[in-house]
Amino acid sequence: MIDRREKERLFKDTVAKNTQWLGVIARNNAPRGSWQDLEQEIRIAFWKSLDSYDGERSSPNTWFHSIARNTAEGFQRKNRNSRKRDERVYPNPVFVEQDRDQLRIVEEFIRTLGELDQQVFTMCLDDLSYEEMSAVVGVSEVNLRKRMSRIKEQFKAKYIGR
Amino acid sequence: MELEQVKAAWQREKAAYPYETDPAKILADTRQQAMKRDQEFARKQRTQIICSLICLGLMARCYSPHNPLLANVGLIVMLLGSALMLAGSIILKYRLRVSHPELPRKEFLAEQRRKISARIALLQNNMTWFLIPAMLGFLLWQVTLSHSIQMKIVLIILAALACVGAFWCGRWQIRRELRPMLEEIDRELDE
Q1: B9 and which of A60, A86, A99, B65 could share a cystine (Cβ 3.0–4.6 Å)?
Q2: CATH class of the region A95-162
């Protein structure tokens, strides 16, 4: 069991490194009104689990990613009925006016994708590395690259030059 | 329309999403919330235990050596059934409290599955082994003590309605809430 100071240090460092990534997880797995609830769920789960963190089996980042993924999936299962698909796409209702068309296109395109592809595509838009994506969705990087290239092809065929 | 343009629009939109970035503030908030949850859990459990003990104690006061044997037997059966149902629910809540989201996905899902199965098993056990005997005990106790036929009929109807209601609630919870979650986890485990 780690001591209190070490636990706090690990928590602060890991959360600081993953703040934006946590936002992506929340946006991908919770309806608009519940993003902060999910983020908090994940942070609390991480904080509690740090008591059993030994540092030998995995890095704090990998540990955090596993917790985030499992907590988000559990949260999704619990909130399945209240989840509205549309709300996942327009995270902020007051989006920049000139971006409206592009975001509409993203929405339209995302609707045509399967669930995993939706997640991968939104993470690509969020500029996550393949390593980070792999930790989120639990799919190998090689597989993700192939998947992403296929998604990009689909996107190009539909919208590029339109 | 280029993918990069779309990406930039998405990024601008994301930038408008408010992040709390001060790690010390996040830590303080998380620690406070975690503590609050633990306290809330302990408070709820304490309240449930105290209320259960008071109710059981009040019912136990109805025991009297002067009552007919059947009434006392009924009372004891009802008390035992109720006590076992309450104890089972309190113990299960403690057992299910600990979660291990740091485990690999499959192991975590298996853990979640075990938890849901345990809740289903508890509800089924309560409905099959404890609820019906407790209701029969209640009937035996009250019907033996009451003198008018009308009262006995009313008691039987009330007990039957309560039993059916509790049974229906339990089955509804299993069918609508727990089984779908279990099936979803099974599907995810099979993927």
Answers
A1: A99
A2: mainly alpha
- CA nearest A92: which of A32, A23, A19? A32
Find the CB nearest A63 among B99, B102, B181. B102
d(CA B185, CA B24): 36
Any idea which residue has 């059934």 for tokens?
Answer: B81
Pick the residue of A65, A70, A92, A103 with the most B CBs within 10 A to test the interface with B by mutation: A70
Q: Do A52 and B6 touch (CB under 8 A)?
A: no
Q: Does the structural domain A1-93 have CATH classification 3.30.590.10?
A: no
pLDDT tens for each residue of B53-80: 999 999 999 999 998 999 999 999 999 9
How much is the pTM?
Answer: 0.70
Q: Quick check: ipTM above 0.85?
A: no
Higher pLDDT among residues B4 and B167, named by residue: B167
